[in-house]
């Protein structure tokens, strides 16, 4: 199995690149680009669909699909992922997307197998308002970008979460590694982590019931963690807020998880 902790490979340009081949799985792809004003990145979706998430910064975005170009103009408003809500653009299969940075830009390219009948669209802030989840030191702030109930994609599920320093997240532990609907869905998952201040770190554990997979990782600013299966709780260290962007995909576009039985007693409002 590939290393579950993927470090940035550069400081600018293509910083992260996770493919199904590099991850050793089937569905999820993730890339992260850091661009200067005026720089452009583009791509063909081929048989996959893409969600372009402006993690930080502003850009002009367009998508060409079925002979028509949808130009969304300049989008974006936050300069860090810790302030404000995200802008994103969906590009269906067999389309070409182009992003030109108008400020320093941090662009996430989330991908999964595409389907027929979907169109390019802008996903603006407020379309899915931020939610508060949990209580006490398990409180975190969740913004769905592409949730399962929007009906506007074949495979992709995309969400971002801010976990305050000293809090836990993706906790109590849950898993979604069995294709056993309606009880549980199989979803591969990536976490793209950012820390504030940037010199901080957080902890993430990925493990299965039988402990055939059991890895605990110190994640730093810009790291990606892979979750091929198992439980995957996260802990933000005191003094450092944690942002992560989740990309999930599997054979069904449904997020149906099961919780670790030994921690079921924690589910009294957490």
From TrEMBL:
GO molecular function: glucuronate isomerase activity
Keywords, comma-separated and alphabetical: Isomerase
InterPro entries recorded: Deoxy-glucuronate_isom_IolB, KduI/IolB_isomerase, RmlC-like_jellyroll, RmlC_Cupin_sf
Protein's GO biological process: inositol catabolic process
Signal sequence annotation: none
Domain of life of the organism encoding this protein: Bacteria
Residue spans crossing the bilayer: none
PANTHER family tied to this protein: 5-DEOXY-GLUCURONATE ISOMERASE
NCBIfam families noted in UniProt: myo_inos_iolB
Protein name, UniProt field: 5-deoxy-glucuronate isomerase
Organism name: Xaviernesmea oryzae
